[in-house]
Amino acid sequence: MSTGTGPAARWARYVALGDSMTEGLWDLDPAAPDVPRGWADLLAQRLAERRAGPLEYANLAVRGRLLGEIVTEQLPAALELGPDLVSLVGGGNDLLRPGADPDALAARLEAAVVRVRGTGADVLLATGMDARDSPVIRATRPRVAVFNAHVWTIARRHGAHVLDVWGMRSLRDWRMWAQDRIHLSTEGHERVAQGALVALGLGAETPGWDDPLEPLPPVARAERLREDLTWARTYAGPWVGRRLRRRSSGDARRPKRPQLEVVRLPGG
């Protein structure tokens, strides 16, 4: 019997595809501190709680992956697992690169969605984040917006669900982001998992799940400058260096959960 609240989840096999956001970078699993958790793991837990039977779950996402790599490497492996729900979230790393073509990315994404939908499985897509408040990533905002428009169109054409990350008000707060200002914090991943439930038509567990946080007191300009310099030295510099060398933090990594496993419920 389902132990969750809200409508029951109909899916029995969920496979998550993507990059660092879906791998869960910066959100550590309390039960396994050396393994990232993230919104997709949290979503799988919520789905399992809302099912009468077991939920099997695999997560093939790897940090740093481009959309083309997700489609050519992860998607075939996912389809071999016979899922009835696939979350396909990618393109963010592509859009960070100068000269990225959101139209070409969207065409590749749509072909992948058609392939999954052809098996009868449902698809969960996601929009890119609105980087309006980021002094560094803000330059990508126009092409992310174009890509997002494609995501909504692809979903309409093929009956996919959309996790509207761009529209989440809570993510406009830096407390929802990790120290590197690129990846979500634990609380950010929790909010996105709630958004995924809404996107799948299951409703959020927590009323006001996307309400903005109470504002913090203003930070002195000198302190803000020190924080920015520390961030640039610790995170931005190494990130740019890897891009110039065409390297990724995930080059040698394998998926954390490559095979379907039954999601264990608390106390189960």
Automatic annotation (TrEMBL):
Gene3D superfamilies: SGNH hydrolase. Coiled coil: none annotated. InterPro entries: GDSL_Rv0518-like (IPR053140), SGNH_hydro (IPR013830), SGNH_hydro_sf (IPR036514). Keywords: Hydrolase. Pfam families: Lipase_GDSL_2. Residues 16-191 form the SGNH hydrolase-type esterase domain. GO terms for molecular function: hydrolase activity. Residues 246-268 are annotated as: Disordered. This is SGNH/GDSL hydrolase family protein. PANTHER family: GDSL-LIKE LIPASE/ACYLHYDROLASE, PUTATIVE (AFU_ORTHOLOGUE AFUA_2G00820)-RELATED, GDSL-LIKE LIPASE_ACYLHYDROLASE, PUTATIVE (AFU_ORTHOLOGUE AFUA_2G00820)-RELATED. CDD domains: SGNH_hydrolase_like_1 (cd01832).
